[in-house]
Specification:
Radius of gyration: 23 Å
Largest sheet: 7 strands, mixed
Number of strands: 10
Helix content: 40-55%
Shape: elongated
Order of helices and strands: HHEEEEEEEEEEHHHHHHHH
Oligomer: single chain
Length: 346
């Protein structure tokens, strides 16, 4: 849309469109790729037959900000600086290498500060006597490292992880919202959502199980590009025949769903799948993504229906507003992500 047409819009519409772009940009400025910050932490313990062990702590971060959480062993083996530390875009990873006399069996593993949060900590311990797979919660921030200790499985935590991942993944939500606005509240939404689900389920499984290898940074760039594409399709083009996207939106959902599936797998790979329960955990994570996606679609549909009811009492024409404001907001936000991720890539 050119500047002349923009200036011809009612003042209220111009203000709202500008505010939409401004809010989108401010939201993105809190972290260009922080679309997946709310994730459980992970404690992974691998003990060799000799008794030596390696303890890995993966904690989610948002830029340089992280919740104050610290893993502890009752024997004091972790009360020192880690042997190595790596900070990625989404996680801080610390590794301790313990000598053979550490004797982990029977010690208590706890996470200091967990009781003051709402997050979970997945525990995967492979001890010489056997394996432990469970979840530490704010209400139960510690456990005894003993194979005979009755503990719950860590697999159900992947359902919650999938729900949180999609509901805090603003880039994926922006894409889904764009599709919803492009199609409208009709039967076509079901077809597009089904295509998107099938596509991202295939690539999520393939990448998470190691069958397909992709560059996570490039995938994030392509995801942002897919949202820019949908935002451009939302801009009305009077006098032009409908594009393929408007005639067959399920094709776009299918194609771009493959990309988003790789992005989902990138988040899942940073936590890892539990040994001997990978299919179950993968299914629950994908199911959680679908639950979160359907919750968002339902909420967005209610908002759209509510705005339609308000249309007759508003003092200005909402036709242009409903067509242009979402395109400006989604387009501005996704363009910011695209530029920021390209800068990070190069």
């Amino acid at each position: 849309m050119n500047a002349t047409r923009f200036r011809s819009l009612p003042p209220a519409l111009r203000v709202l469109a500008a505010l939409g772009v401004l809010c989108a940009t401010l939201l993105a400025s809190s972290g260009p790729a922080r679309a997946h910050e709310v994730r459980p932490a992970l404690v992974q313990i691998v003990e060799s037959p000799s008794g030596a062990a390696e303890v890995t702590w993966k904690q989610p971060v948002a830029g340089e900000v992280a919740i104050r959480l610290s893993p502890r062993l009752s024997g004091g083996a972790l009360d020192r600086p880690p042997d190595s530390e790596t900070v990625t875009q989404a996680y801080r990873i610390r590794v301790w290498r313990l000598p053979a006399d550490a004797r982990l069996a029977g010690q208590t593993l706890s996470v200091e500060g967990l009781d003051m949060t709402v997050t979970d900590v997945l525990v995967q311990a492979r001890l010489s006597q056997g394996e432990i797979s469970t979840v530490l919660k704010p209400s139960r921030p510690s456990l005894r490292l003993a194979v005979d200790t009755p503990v719950g499985t860590a697999v159900p935590a992947y359902l919650r992880m999938g729900i949180e991942h999609i509901l805090t993944g603003f880039d994926h939500l922006a894409f889904v919202l764009g599709l919803l606005l492009l199609i409208g509240l009709n039967r076509g939404v079901v077809k597009a959502v089904t295509a998107f689900t099938l596509a991202h389920s295939v690539t999520l499984a393939g990448a998470a199980l190691g069958w397909v290898q992709v560059d996570p940074a490039m995938i994030e760039v392509l995801v942002a590009l897919s949202i820019v594409f949908v935002a451009l399709e939302l801009v009305p083009r009077p006098g032009r025949p409908p594009s393929l996207t408007r005639r067959r939106p399920w094709l776009v959902a299918l194609a771009f769903g493959l990309l988003h599936g790789f992005a989902f797998a990138g988040a899942l790979s940073q936590i890892g799948l539990p040994k001997d329960a990978a299919p179950q955990a993968l299914f629950l994570f994908n199911l959680g993504v679908e639950i979160g996606q359907l919750v968002f679609i339902a909420a967005a549909s209610l908002v759209i229906l509510g705005l339609r009811r308000l249309r007759p009492i508003l003092p200005f024409d909402t036709g242009a507003l409903t067509q242009l404001a979402p395109a400006y907001a989604i387009g501005g936000l996704s363009a910011y992500w695209l530029i920021a991720r390209l800068a990070g890539l190069f």
